[in-house]
Design goal:
By secondary structure, this protein is of the alpha/beta class. It contains 8 helices and 7 strands, in the order βαβαβαβαβααβααβ. Helix 1 runs parallel beside helix 2 and helix 3 packs parallel to helix 4. The longest helix has 25 residues. Helix 4 links the parallel strand 4 and strand 5. It has one domain: NAD(P)-binding Rossmann-like Domain (Rossmann fold), CATH 3.40.50. Bound molecules: NADP nicotinamide-adenine-dinucleotide phosphate.
Length: 243
């Protein structure tokens, strides 16, 4: 199996933690970013400083032409693809469904659903005749529903759970495993727009009584990519401190 990995949204948050941890595990990592060029280069620098292999690759994952170009660029620079971590995501405008703004709703669907499908499609096409692994980063909200402020976001993540189940069945006979990690509340900039007291209240509802770290999600993702998870496909692994 090739050890070339694309991590979408790899410049910061959970994606950056995954890129760094995967490089430690021997993956040559393509760190995808949309706007955070400097931060993607910083992740690449950290990987190279530790003796790993990495490149930064710009692409908006919601755009088909950019996704295809990104995978072409990765294979040209690093070699044949071996894995994909579908991670790039947005939450959109928080609020109840009755206040949802059409264009913003479409952006969340485009990035969180269309983007994941496009990247998964490219990965599966390029893994023709070879084994590989895909990990989709979904969310615990896919099951919790996100009532009050994040139903639109939760629904996109439920779509990703179903993508995982369906695609894993399609490609398992070819030796491609597709799994999903469902983080709970993890300390990243995705929560930047939420008041601190809201997060503190959520923390009380988490059985482990704390918000998670990106590195804790990265461990689960990299394990699912690895041969240690060789008989696991179509799994939805919750990393939510018990919630
Ligand atoms: P984050 O810190 O806000 O990072 C989001 C990442 O997605 C950034 O690297 C951003 O890249 C990238 N991105 C957004 N739109 C993109 C696009 N169209 N094309 C390419 N990249 C794009 O968020 P995070 O918490 O690390 O979230 C990572 C994933 O985990 C998301 O799918 C999120 O839904 C999921 N998740 C997070 C939590 C949590 O509590 N943090 C919980 C459950 C699930 P640029 O900066 O370059 O735009």
């Amino acid at each position: 199996m090739s050890r070339v990995l694309v991590v979408t949204g790899g410049a910061r948050g959970i994606g950056a933690a995954v890129a760094l941890r995967a490089a430690q595990d021997g993956w040559a990592v393509a760190v995808n970013y949309r706007a955070s060029a400097d931060r993607a280069e910083e992740v690449v620098r950290q990987i190279r400083d530790r003796g790993g292999v990495a490149v930064a690759v710009q692409a908006d994952t919601s755009r088909e032409d950019e996704v295809v170009r990104m995978f072409d660029e990765v294979e040209r620079k690093l070699g044949l693809l071996g894995g994909l971590v579908n991670n790039a995501g947005v939450v959109g405008q928080p609020g109840p469904v009755q206040q949802i703004d059409g264009p913003r709703l479409r952006e969340v669907l485009d990035v969180n659903v269309v983007g994941y499908f496009l990247c998964a499609r490219e990965a599966v096409r390029r893994l023709e005749g070879r084994s590989g692994a895909i990990v989709n980063v979904s969310s615990r909200l896919a099951s919790l529903g996100g009532a009050g402020e994040q139903v639109h976001y939760a629904a996109t993540k439920a779509a990703i759970d179903t993508l995982t189940l369906g695609l894993s069945g399609e490609v398992a006979p070819r030796g491609i495993r597709v799994n999903c990690v469902r983080p709970g509340i993890i300390a990243t900039e995705i929560h930047a727009a939420r008041p601190a007291d809201v997060l503190a209240n959520v923390e009380k509802a988490i059985p482990l009584r704390r918000i998670g770290r990106p590195e804790e999600v990265a461990e689960a993702v990299v394990w699912l990519l690895s041969d240690k998870a060789s008989y696991i496909t179509g799994a939805l692994l919750d990393v939510g401190g018990g919630r």
